[in-house]
Design goal:
It is a single chain. With 135 residues, the chain is mainly beta. It is built from one helix and ten strands; from the N terminus they run βαβββββββββ. It has a domain of 94 residues: Rieske Iron-sulfur Protein (3-layer Sandwich), CATH 2.102.10.10. The strands form three sheets. It has a four-stranded antiparallel beta sheet. Strands 1-10-9 form a three-stranded antiparallel beta sheet. Strand 3 and strand 4 form a beta hairpin. It binds FE2/S2 (inorganic) cluster.
């Protein structure tokens, strides 16, 4: 049985690289997920924005030695792997990110690969995505 081809992941521009360098981290809705994008060691790193503990906003966390600490209860996640240094069973998804033409691009999973619509921490407003894909 064949059906339509599965949806493909797509790159989305989330901000200008100079903005990311100045702010250190941003959050944006990218396809079906909300991502936290950090500037680390001269390149962007993208993780799922929502802390798996209780939904804290990871882009507001402090980064030390390549590890972000959730601002709510201090769980930690490696920006390269998404894994917790303290608990290998605790992790967040990581997404490919790169710079092109002065923009930070993040490759979002196809809708079938995500866990539903973007999730936000309670009380967090939607942040604009720098550039929308045509529909
Ligand atoms: S919500 Fe992130 S550590 Fe609790």
């Amino acid at each position: 049985m064949s059906g339509p081809p599965p949806p493909k992941s797509r790159e989305h521009a989330v901000c200008r690289v100079e903005d990311l360098k100045a702010r250190g981290a941003v959050a944006a809705d990218v396809g079906p997920v909300r991502v936290a994008v950090f500037w680390l060691d001269g390149e962007p790193r993208a993780l799922n924005e929502t802390c798996p503990h209780r939904g804290g906003p990871l882009h507001l966390g402090e980064v030390r030695n390549g590890v972000v600490r959730c601002p709510w209860h201090l769980w930690q996640f490696d920006l390269a792997t998404g894994c917790s240094p303290a608990n290998p069973n605790s992790r967040v998804a990581v997404y490919p990110a790169r710079v092109e033409g002065g923009s930070v691009l993040v490759r979002a999973p196809a809708p079938a690969e995500s866990n539903g619509p973007p999730r936000r921490a309670p009380g967090m407003p939607a942040l604009p995505v720098g550039e929308q894909e045509p529909t």
